[in-house]
Known about the structure:
Number of strands of chain A: 9
Structural class of chain A: alpha/beta
Number of helices of chain A: 8
Shape of chain A: globular
Number of strands of chain B: 13
Helix content of chain A: 25-40%
Radius of gyration of chain A: 18 Å
Largest sheet of chain A: 9 strands, mixed
Low-confidence stretches of chain B: none
Oligomer: heterodimer
Structural class of chain B: alpha/beta
Largest sheet of chain B: 6 strands, mixed
Number of helices of chain B: 10
Helix content of chain B: 25-40%
Mean pLDDT of chain A: 90
Strand content of chain B: 15-25%
Largest interface: A-B, 28 and 29 residues
Strand content of chain A: 5-15%
Order of helices and strands of chain B: EHEHEHEEEEHHEHEHEEHHEHE
Radius of gyration of chain B: 19 Å
Amino acid sequence: MSSPVAAPASTDPGVAQTETLPPLGSRLWLYSNFDCNLACDYCCAGSSPSAPARRLPVEVARRACEELAGLGGQKILITGGEPFLDPDLVDLVAVAVPWAPVTILTNAMVLARGSRRRMLDALDPARVTMQVSLDSGTPDLHDRHRGQGSFDRARDGIALLGELGFRVTVAATVDEADAAEEAGLHALLDRDGIPPDDRLVRRVARQGFADHGLALNLDNVWPEPALTANGAWWHPVSITDPAMQVASSPLPLVTVLAVIRATLDDPDRDRGEALQAFRCT
Amino acid sequence: MAGTYRLGAVVYHPDVRRIWEDFGAWFADKGLALEPRYYDSYEEQVADLLAGRLETAWNTNLAHVQVMAATGNVDALAMRDTDRGWRSLLVAREDSGLRELSDLRGRRIGFGDADSPQAHIMPVHALRAKGFDPERDCIATRLDRDLGKHGDTGGAELAQLARVRAGELDASVVSSFTLDAVGRLGDSSGLREIWASPPFHHCCFTVVGDHEQHARFRELLLSMDIADPKLCEPMELEHVTRWLPFDPSGYGELVAAVEAGPVLVGRSDGSAA
């Protein structure tokens, strides 16, 4: 599953916050679709093979990306679902790359052949970064959450992306109880030549399919606006939580950001220094 | 109770319906039966106001001026605090070396929707008054993104500003309202304001003729308090902190621009004319 699930960058609300909080309006998440070849048991988006696709219209993405660029935004991230199951993915990327660097979050399992391979070949490695989900250094943990055989196929996908010249980053979702697995993952990524700065290990968020993990709300996580075909959300991990929806429409983006800004500035909310980044990339 | 008070609102965003449903519930609590009617364009809304099918229309300044041009029996009841003192601005990149209007001669300048008072009609009129004709003195481009909405979405302004940041345009027109939003919601630090139009007012509740409930509607509107839990959300969505009495002084420049005749610079696809 390629959906972003991450833990706070730090439990210390002090120095780490000011270093890691992306300014509001600097990053925009686009949920290209919600269907997925996997049904990971911790997926924050509730994606699966049977999930309705709910594809983001390209024209909505075009306008959102232009608005973001006008506002001075600097990063566009495409996630799902598995974005490569969206037949419009190349068009989505095309309306985003003129304005900002693009990262696609993928499980990298469906890239080898067919229409997905043709989509991959149509993307420019110089302008698109691929973030692949890989949870452990051996198949056991990864396959336990994501399905039998998914570890080997993800590694094949990472190799293919590397051969094609894409910058590949890796994101792992690891329960606290399995934290000992992280050393094995880093050893594997060392061997595969994935630089330490291109790795992210995060905890499960209690969203979507996850029945445990970190509880997120408007008062403890710094916003990173995420757009779907059905509206706008406070953060990409929160798009199954009605309490985290900030607008019933993804456009205009400026209205989405205005609602978030007003919520941040609301003196009646118990927040401020408690807000922490919840890294997905 | 008197009959319903029919109010027109153009749906430039899906939340417009929510705004007026929430306002409508509040007015009902106060004994005024508001009946919002929704439109896809200001032209349709103005036509219904003139035909007597609305008691008031939540209009852009251009729609208000269009009603003024159609009938002398026009007034307005109120406006937002944020409707006063807008300006149309020409903005360039800080690192462009462009400093003043004369630097823009022969340069690529982006304008917004053809029917945007703030991103097309007003700035073209004001620039001409300064001796700078966009059709003659620069390479003007226009971006028609939301015709009928009079630039309410801000989409064309931000899209043109994106082209300025990307170096595809040398400068573009944004309203002071939009540039303020860029500063609050994004990053305006790399931009330089190189020209500003005279100030003008924006939206207002236009009325044609008398109606027994105009005064009550206005009285209730002006009494709205954004601290009221029933009003804080729709008022935030409507970008209003406080409703104010209508001030007719801020529409003269737009009246002059409309009387000067149709304005259309650049092509509608954003390319140069």
